[in-house]
Amino acid sequence: MIGEHGLAIGAAEGTAVANSEAASELEVGRDVLRQEATGILRLADSLDGRFLQAVEILAAVVGRTVVTGMGKSGHVARKIAATMASTGQPALFVHPGEASHGDLGMITPADAVLALSNSGETAELANIVDYAGRFAIPLIAVVGREGSALAEAARVALVLPQMAEACPMGLAPTTSTTMMLALGDALSVALLRRRGFSAADFSVFHPGGKLGRRLVKVQDIMHRGAAMPLAPEGTPMGQALITMTEKAFGCVGVVDAAGHLIGIVTDGDLRRHMAPGLLALPVEAVMTGRPLTIRPGALAAEALHLLNARRITALFAVEDRCPVGVFNVHDCLRAGVA
User: Fold this and answer.
1) CA–CA separation, 57 vs 61, rounded Å?
2) Tell me: the pLDDT tens digits for 144-153?
3) Which terminus in the chain has less CB density within 10 A, N or C?
4) Distance set, CA 153 to CA 161, 189, 282 (Å)
5) The whole model's pTM is what?
């Protein structure tokens, strides 16, 4: 009995300890996120004219933005370069160590350098800083100390607010790298807006993956020319039905003498007008006038939304009232638009 009670008590105590440790770890995680969030908020409040100067310099670059940093700052620099490149600001990452062994040749006088270092005293950056000065290449620094060597050498120094690292020992870069990353995003988005970068531009750099599929346009998937099921005004329904069957879109568009789309005949229209004399009727007697259409430059996702909302399966793309393409829900699905 005693042994059993003793074991039971021990198990309960073990569970309590485990629960206590889990609660403590959960609170640690929350504290880290709160501290880093505070760092970003302070960074936002600290932005001033120097941020605007940095945007002006980068926007004027004829070449590329060369982003560099060592250690954890280097990992952040890679991400900043990738974000800029994908949003219309040509950019690349250059490793400071490799730069000292030939990769300085990747940096040209037409470029600008964005260098990251929390201490501002990273020795490995020295050759890049000297090279930028020698060839009058604009240098923008993201640093944690105002009077550091990197800040003094830079044309513009973006100084991070003084914040303790979230690491309990204050050693592992955590809050500082989060602020650097956020500042890189701020620069990228400011440049994106300056350039008037659009969703259409974005799709050029993101042709793959889910994002690329979401940015597919109607004109990318529509069927053109002879593939379109069209019938001139006055065409007997018998002939229009042959065209409708051959093209396999479940519809036929009706065009007037000027080539304008004036109506559409669908399976539903056929059922509504089913009668002995149907095949002899002209298409305009059966068609639905003023059909729903879409611009060829619209996103395919927008077109799919219209198809679903109206419970139809096909749409004509129209320019200046003339049909330039047709597509259906199956084309959207094949393109991965959903």
Assistant:
1) 7
2) 999 999 999 9
3) N
4) 19, 26, 80
5) 0.61
